[in-house]
Amino acid sequence: MEHFGIYYKTRKGINQFVLLIISILSSFQLDLSAQIKPGSPRIISREVSSETPPLYGSLYVESGGSQLRSGDLISDNNGQTWTRSPMTPDFSSGLPHGFRRNEVTSVLDPFAGRIITIVNSLDVKDLDPGINEPPVAQKTYYLRYKVSADAGKTWRFEEPIIHKGSFSAANPFPGIFIGKNSIYLGDRGSIPVVTQKGKILVPAQTTTLDKNGELFNPGNGHTYTDAVVLIGSWKKNGKLSWKMSDRVQGDPKRSTRGMIEPTISELKDGRLVMIMRGSNAAKGSTEYILPSHKWVSVSKNGGKSWTKPEPLGFDNERPLYSPSAMSTLFKHSSGRYFWVGNMTEKNSEGNLPRWPLVMAELDPGTLKLISNSLLVLDTQNEEDKLRGRLDISHITLIEDRLTKEIILTYPRSYNAYKSREWITTRIKINDR
Prior knowledge:
This protein is mainly beta. It contains one helix and 28 strands. Helices cover 1% and strands 37% of the residues. Strand 17 (260-266) and strand 18 (272-277) form a beta hairpin. The longest helix has 4 residues, at 137-140. The radius of gyration is 21 Å and the shape is globular.
């Protein structure tokens, strides 16, 4: 068992130095000695709350300064205090019952001074709003985007994302026909990226069709998708012209659900790296024979085409076992790249277990995780076992502009998502 002394704060404002004990159970015997290597990330504080932290999914609204926005909340003092200030207009107001508009991820374009938000959209009349991930979405999800040009005060417009040329809302991209198959963002790790050339890249996923025009599921998984990147270029009218990349296709003999929930980053040399979720679970089976990988692919032409996805691993050739769950690539202002996701000691079983949560630096040359940078952020402890199944996922990250710390926020869910608490962790990126 390793112990890490950190600063701990509760929502009640009682501050004290405590010893956060991260118990590495017998089923997960990681070598944590790497955590003390110079230059490795280090946890410096951890806050627990019963409500969603305002920093969850937040972003800075201008290329300089300390103003943040998180949904309907704004902060003028770098997240110390928040006030309610919804953006206008509300494009969801007045939609037919059952229609959905779910804002997923956003990015600030520092060159154009605009915020772009990607919206999972579904136009199915009278669909029960209480159904999470309705099966019909696999045929009907499509993407919209919104743009703000005044530091997140108002929206200029909201409209569907449609491929340039002779495409339409019904057929927004090659091979996508809304009502038969769909395109959407799978989780909060699919964050848009603004490239050095000013392009807006949106990592997304799309269900596919067989020769009969029905949903294609060659791996017999829960769903089956390809990863794609939507490439946006600014037009003179302040809107974006869109093109879809070639598909990043998995091998159903290696991942039963194809490629899911891509997360991307641009490297210093202009290459793009994508990490994706896969799965080793098949419907009707309790065997998990396939290795539970995360998958990596590279683009050398601005995201237009991508290499065949291969398993993500460590630089010491140790395999990375990871459940079918989201993850995030994060570029720090120091120029270093970090991957945050779930990692298990042995082969995962489909989506589970979604713990421990770890962080590791990505080597931009080899595109492997640096083994001696591995940091365990959170994992199951004895108390958790009394609260039902633990899931640690659906994370967001932001870099504090003043301290340069990475702020990680996420729900700690129990009993198959029936209850939860929220964690805010600050991570210092030490100089090498």
